[in-house]
Amino acid sequence: MKRPTILVLGAGYGGLSTVVNLQKSIGADDANIVLINKNEYHYESTWLHEAAAGTLTPEQVRYDVKDVINEGKVQFVQAEVTAIDIPGKVVTTNVGTHTYDYLVIGLGFEGETFGITGLDKYALSIANVKAARQIREHIEYQFATWSLEEVKDDSRLTIVVGGAGFTGIEFLGELGNRVPELCEEFDVPKEKVRVICVEAAPMVLPGFDPELVTYAVRQLEAKGIEFSIGTPVVEATPEGVNIKKGEDEFEFIKAGTVVWAAGVRGNRLIEETGIENMRARVKVDKDLRAPGHSDVFIVGDCALMINEETNRPYPPTAQIAMQQGDMIANNILALMKGEPTSKFVPDLKGSIASLGDDDAIGVAFGKKMFGKKASFMKKMVDNRALFLIGGVGLTLKKGKFNLLK
Ligand code: FAD
């Protein structure tokens, strides 16, 4: 019998979790497992705010895909997927084409600008490790230029962060620690720097416990971060952003750096597949297959799942992506054996948002926590993700061990 080809697109949390679980349970002769990823490395998307602020280097947030796959069982192809032809069962990349029997799409997230004028051109986005490096270098460039220029333009030292959701708040937490370092490095007086968070919604961190939100805002404000809440960004220009403060009231914030952290969507390649989607996310069947496509699984941020208790989509998280990868590996095995697939039910263990390297808020295993305890737990969660994909070796190599900072 012909060996089936399992083609996995994307070596993010979802794709890698699928592959490492497949390689554990499939014999080398049972299937061809092919993993395609744009880079030769995986990056920890959940650490990108640190790379963007410059509190971690790009090197620290990534590792080689080959460090975690068994090359005796998995063929790794470094290539950029450019098209997915579902009826023809062919995936095209910049270096060639691949056919498949089972396809797993795990191409991750992209920033969503909701059509706001100028954001795609003038705002930076924490979308991947290269984009995070660009933000770090852009901020450093602004500080370096300010310290050199004769007629000083203080707006170079203003950083606007669009969005007070999870990513925005985590990035602000890192900036709160990083700005004093930058001031020292570039001889910039701290009072010249402004970091402003602009949020359209009437609250910070929607969905989080109000007591924890109050704590987070207080801690960030103590580090000099300003909040402008309920004030949507209506336009970005090369000079900054225009925000709406009232019915006919607008304010222009002149800023050297604008980082948009207010929304994500799935990978836009999904929109060209013909599979029904919402903002490039596919509302998957219970066993994580694309509706009407028995050989196509969707994992991670490209998948959309409704929480039946709240009737709202589950937020896109690494936690869910990894659990889905595990389930997809099991379901592909089941299909290969002619057995029924299983229903995916997320096992939500909580959510912790960092406020810099030394502080955090969140709920884990049903317990509310903040401060050093939450920060410790956050690092344990980060290390656990490494452990689940690459075992003890990867955890020791890339893990966070400044646990009690
Ligand atoms: P990704 O991890 O984004 O991986 C997608 C992969 O596909 C990447 O390797 C990419 O290079 C590759 N790829 C993309 N396009 C192509 C292409 N055309 N060809 C080939 N390869 C391609 N979640 C949590 O659970 N906890 C957190 O604390 C948390 N914090 C976060 C902090 C930040 C700053 C951000 C941005 C996100 C955070 N998240 C968190 C969300 C989490 O990172 C995502 O939900 C998760 O990364 C989704 O995993 P994924 O496998 O779908 O995609």
Automatic annotation (TrEMBL):
Molecular function terms, GO-annotated: oxidoreductase activity
InterPro entries given in the database record: FAD/NAD-bd_sf, FAD/NAD-binding_dom, NADH-Q_oxidoreductase
FAD/NAD(P)-binding domain location: 5-325
Enzyme Commission code: 1.6.5.-
Cofactor: FAD
Enzyme class: oxidoreductase
Keyword Flavoprotein: yes
Keywords assigned by UniProt, alphabetized: FAD, Flavoprotein, Oxidoreductase
Any Pfam family hit: Pyr_redox_2
UniProt cross-references to Gene3D superfamilies, sorted A to Z: 3.50.50.100
SUPFAM superfamilies: FAD/NAD(P)-binding domain (SSF51905)
Family stated for the protein in its record: Belongs to the NADH dehydrogenase family.
Protein known as: NAD(P)/FAD-dependent oxidoreductase
